[in-house]
Amino acid sequence: xxxxxxxxxxxxxxxxxxxxxxxxxxxxxxxxxxxxxxxxxxxxxxxxxxxxxxxxxxxxxxxxxxxxxxxxxxxxxxxxxxxxxxxxxxxxxxxxxxxxxxxxxxxxxxxxxxxxxxxxxxxxxxxxxxxxxx
Length: 134
Known about the structure:
Helix content: 25-40%
CATH class: Alpha Beta
Number of helices: 4
Number of domains: 1
CATH architecture: 3-Layer(aba) Sandwich
Structural class: alpha+beta
Strand content: 25-35%
Strand order of the largest sheet: 1-2-3-4-5
Distance between the termini: 33 Å
CATH superfamily: Gcn5-related N-acetyltransferase (GNAT)
CATH topology: Aminopeptidase
Number of strands: 5
């Protein structure tokens, strides 16, 4: 298995649907919207095993100071192989001159992100409005 990393915004509906549903993310039920979202993100890196999309990270930014990781996902059978960490490193390198790179995780457990250098802040609380079914 040789994982290739790409900086691309172009994915098929099938590729995105399979990846998102492999980790049970409801966003996978909206592949048409995911295709458009990937084109609109400022920064997208993906991990490939041959022609198979096995991981993806996307981020948006204000162009100068702040960037936000929106998606980070790796197919379950490819997890714990360094792919997620490599994707995070690519985004960190992309935003090296920015003041802040933030991630909001929907999981209570944040050890992976802490392992990647992020700090949990007890004085900060994320707030959400979700308009589509989770």
